[in-house]
Design goal:
alpha+beta, five-stranded antiparallel beta sheet, 15 helices, 21% strand, globular
Length: 356
């Protein structure tokens, strides 16, 4: 039996490490910086480390933030009975955070969050869309294009199509003209994305409605969909672009706030105006938990129409914890700041699975 103090290890991939690796791989610095901005939550959470350590200490845990490049060696020396690994950032292509849950499993360590298979799936929008469709969930059918040619042609769509990179997040590669009225323009967007980022694009029928996000943190292991925080994300535009995203997070967001150009979207509870849509989203989330294996911490993006029709857009196994929307969720649902909510979640896993 182990007498060591339980430990929470938070594994994260820093923006700078990603940027340097991308430049070494031949990406021009400007584009590499845009790609690496996906990891801005690593930049934004660093000032929270002291608060996280203190919140963990009050609950009988120790806390260790670990950069991804150091994780393999460190995790190999940890005690499986007293160690819990929480992966902050995902990635299988441009980012590498998806290696962290695999390393935890390799070393027999407890893991908070989804298993590594879902880490690989969620960041490939075309493949994840195919799986979600096979589960009978209301996801728009996607086409797939690479550098101006179709790999899979999209279905017809009188309202046009929406074009976005298949393996990049944080609105990278989404521009004001990413809603396309014709497929020729969609192919041109695929050339632009490939030239900038070497990525494919998914081409989905454009769906109307308001943008909504469902956030989840299982403060206790038996927490269910009643704890989802489901809000409309009102940014003042039909969809957010890469420029909008860059103005919210990381060093670029800090500069935008200092310059007075920071515009945080307004979060409005879906249940307040469309309770039937809220109930439908909870049923979809339950299907994702049962059929896909989402657990512990995740977010799901939707479009919600006025008649309560729901379109499932994508899911995240590593939602941006230090981002404004997840902080708001922790305050509203759990009455806690981010550090306390994370520490309480980690501590509950050890209480559910005693170390002695």
């Amino acid at each position: 039996m182990s007498s060591r103090r339980p430990k929470l290890i938070l594994v994260y991939e820093p923006e700078n490490a990603c940027f340097e690796r991308l430049v070494a791989d031949g990406h021009v610095p400007g584009r590499a910086a845009e790609i690496a901005s996906y990891l801005a939550q690593s930049t934004d959470i660093a000032p929270e480390f002291d608060a996280l350590a203190a919140a963990c200490q009050t609950r009988g845990l120790s806390f260790a933030p670990v950069a991804l490049d150091d994780a393999a060696n460190l995790l190999a020396g940890e005690d499986p009975k007293t160690t819990l690994v929480w992966t902050l950032t995902d990635g299988i292509a441009y980012f590498r955070g998806g290696a962290a849950p695999a390393l935890a499993r390799l070393n027999g360590l407890k893991l908070l969050g989804a298993d590594d298979a879902l880490f690989a799936l969620c960041q490939d929008k075309f493949r994840s869309g195919a799986v979600l469709g096979a589960l009978g969930l209301p996801v728009p059918q996607s086409g797939l294009a690479r550098d101006g040619r179709w790999l899979v042609e999209p279905p017809a769509s009188p309202a046009g199509w929406f074009v976005k990179p298949s393996r990049l997040g944080a609105k990278i590669g989404i521009w004001p003209d990413s809603r396309s009225r014709d497929l020729g323009h969609a192919l041109e967007l695929s050339r632009r994305v490939f030239a900038a980022y070497r990525d494919d694009v998914v081409v989905q029928p454009y769906v109307t409605g308001r943008n909504a996000r469902a956030s989840f943190l299982g403060l206790k292991p038996d927490t269910g969909v009643e704890a989802l925080g489901i809000v409309f994300v009102a940014s003042g535009s039909d969809f957010q672009t890469m420029e909008d995203s860059l103005a919210l997070y990381g060093d670029t967001g800090e500069a935008a706030r200092a310059a007075g150009t920071y515009a945080e979207p307004v979060l409005l509870p879906v249940a307040a105006s469309q309770p039937r849509a809220d109930a439908r989203i909870r049923r979809i989330a339950q299907s994702l938990i049962a059929g896909l294996g989402l657990r512990d911490v995740f977010s799901v993006d939707f479009r919600v129409e006025a008649d309560d029709s729901i379109h499932l857009i994508e899911f995240e196994v590593c939602p941006g914890l230090p981002c404004f929307d997840f902080r708001a969720y922790c305050r509203t649902q759990w009455g806690m700041g981010l550090a306390d909510a994370m520490a309480a979640t980690a501590a509950s896993r050890f209480l559910a699975s005693p170390t002695k």
